[in-house]
Write a sequence for this structure.
């Protein structure tokens, strides 16, 4: 089975609302997590990362939460805009390691006008 | 802002032919990667490369695949005898020496095998 996965293949929200995208992981050895955004026809774009010594990290309009107890992380996007429409992937790695990332299947975020 | 570039953006080939996909990683990065994404599926790791040798590879990366850093800027993925199931987006990524775990991706090459 896969190590990292997302709960919903598609999430539709109204423009201006907040969205939460969830991800579950199963590899206890993973201690570094990244959220990527992939727009149609483009490569994954780094959004935000979090290391296992943290449970929350904030960026511009985005917040990542990590719950190591239940092996769950989430990406919160505040005040969604049309440009936020994309597929969002979580990925895991060992902190500091140059290993291959393990990606989840992705959640397609659709912003309704 | 520096970024990973890839060429070509789209490659069409006949089954059994060899293809070479090219990448120019971010200039100060030392770790390089190839991933693939079959249409509608998740991104899958193929291989990582550091100090002119493969450091890790997945089970997808069989003997049909090879990677090379022919000069100081390019990083290539060669598929010797393409199969229909090799049709996918291929992404190159790179990471810097002090933040090897944070990988930055190129725009991808769409490979279509007919």
């Amino acid at each position: 089975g896969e190590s990292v996965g997302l709960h919903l293949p598609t999430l539709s929200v109204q423009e201006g609302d907040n969205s939460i995208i969830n991800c579950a992981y199963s590899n206890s050895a993973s201690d570094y997590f990244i959220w990527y955004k992939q727009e149609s026809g483009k490569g994954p774009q780094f959004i935000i990362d979090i290391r296992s010594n943290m449970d929350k990290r904030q960026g511009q309009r985005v917040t990542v939460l990590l719950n190591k107890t239940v092996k769950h992380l989430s990406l919160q996007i505040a005040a969604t805009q049309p440009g936020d429409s994309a597929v969002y992937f979580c990925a895991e790695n060992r902190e500091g390691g140059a290993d291959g990332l393990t990606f989840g299947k992705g959640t397609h975020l659709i912003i309704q006008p | 802002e520096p970024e990973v570039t890839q060429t070509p953006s789209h490659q069409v080939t006949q089954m059994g032919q060899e293809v070479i996909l090219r990448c120019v990683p971010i200039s100060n990065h030392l770790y390089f990667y190839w991933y693939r994404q079959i249409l509608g599926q998740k991104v899958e790791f193929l291989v990582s490369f550091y100090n002119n040798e493969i450091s890790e590879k997945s089970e997808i990366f069989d003997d049909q695949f090879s990677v090379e850093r022919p000069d100081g800027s390019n990083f290539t993925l060669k598929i010797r005898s393409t199969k229909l199931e090799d049709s996918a987006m291929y992404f190159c990524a790179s990471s810097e020496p002090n933040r090897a775990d944070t990988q930055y991706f190129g725009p991808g090459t769409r490979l279509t095998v007919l």
The radius of gyration of chain B is 13 Å. The interface with chain A takes residues 4, 31, 33, 35, 41-48, 50, 55-56, 58, 91, 95, 100-108 of chain B (CB under 8 Å). Residues 1 and 26 of chain B are 10 Å apart (CA to CA).
